[in-house]
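Sample intake sheet
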Amino acid sequence: MRGAGAARRNQGEERGPAGRGPDEDSGPVSVVLPAELRARLQAEAKKRGLKLSPAIRALLSERVQELDDAEQLSRAEEWQRAQVWAVWERMKAGDHDEASRQELDSIFHEAHEALRDAPRRRAR
C-alpha cells in the first residue's frame, strides 16, 4: 500500500530498510558542520591518513569510549568514597580494628570483579 508509508512518515514514524525499524538503521547520518569544525576535522583526518567520514567515525567512537570510561571511573570513585565513609563511621563509633592484608586484598578483589562485570556500552 503506497500511501501507508507516507502516512507513517507524516505521523513521525521513520521507515528503515526492509524489515528494520528506525533504531536498527545503521545508514548514513547527515550533520551540518560549521566551517571551522569541518576544517579541524579535515586536518585531523589528514593527520590520521583518513578521509573525512572515517575520521569522523573514529573520533566519535573514541569520544564515546572516553565517556564510558569516565562513567566507569566515576562509579569506582563513588565506591571508594562509600568505603572510606563506612570506615570513618566505624572509627568514630570506637571500632579501631585493623584490617589484615588478606582482608584488604579481598575487598579490592571484590571491587575489581564488580567493575569488570559491570555492563559496559561499546562504541560502534
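Comment: The chain is about 65% helix and 0% strand. The mean pLDDT is 82.
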